[in-house]
Write the C-alpha cells for this entry.
Amino acid sequence: EIVLTQSPATLSLSPGERAALSCRASQSVSSYLAWYQQKPGQAPRLLIYDTSNRATGIPARFSGSGSGTDFTLTISSLEPEDFAVYYCQQRSNWPYTFGQGTKLEIK
Amino acid sequence: QVQLVQSGAEVKKPGASVRVSCRAFGYTFNGYYIHWVRQAPGQGPEWMGWINPKSGDTNYVQKFQGRVSMTRDPSINTAYMELISLTSDDTAVYYCAKYGVSHYYMDVWGKGTTVIVSS
C-alpha cells in the first residue's frame, strides 16, 4: 500500500499570503495524484487531479505541481474561505490512499 | 443536478451490522462506479472499495474483505454498503462518491452517513 505523507501537519498563515502544502509518496505514483479540500461537517471537495489539473469551478489561485513521489499544492493568495484541511490522494496503485491531511489555519 | 443522497445516521452496538444507502440523481447511474470511503474522527479518509452499478462487480480493500458487502439496485438508482461485525474502530462518517466525467477522481460526494458503534 502506498503511504502518502503530508507536511506540515498544520500551517498558520494570514489572508493574502501564499501557501505551499507538501505530499510525499512512499513510492512513485507517476502523475496520478489529487488534492481535496475539506471543511468541518462537509465531504471532501476535489480541487486538483492528475497533479496539476484544476477541477471544475476551482479558482485559479489553486495550482498543483510535482511528479513521482513529491507533490505540492500552492494557493497563491489566501482567501478567508481557503482555511480548511487539505488531503492528497493517489490512484496509481490499489488500494487508493489518502494522506493524513494538512490543516491550514488563520494566523 | 448531479447528487448522491445518503441514508441517515446510525448507532449500533459492537458485533452488529450496518447498511448505508446512496441514491443517485441527475446522471446515468450505470455509467459510473460508486466508491465508498470512510473517515474516522480526526483522521484522513480511507477507501473501502467500489461497485460497478452496471454489472454488480465489486472490488474491496483487503482490510475490509469478509466484513463488507457492496450491492446495488439499478431500478431505484441506489447503491448499498453493508459492514458486519462492527467494533468501536468502525465509528466514522461513511461517504459514497463517483468519479468525474473526464477524470478518475471523486468529484461528486454524498453528504456522509455517521455511524457510531457503542455499547
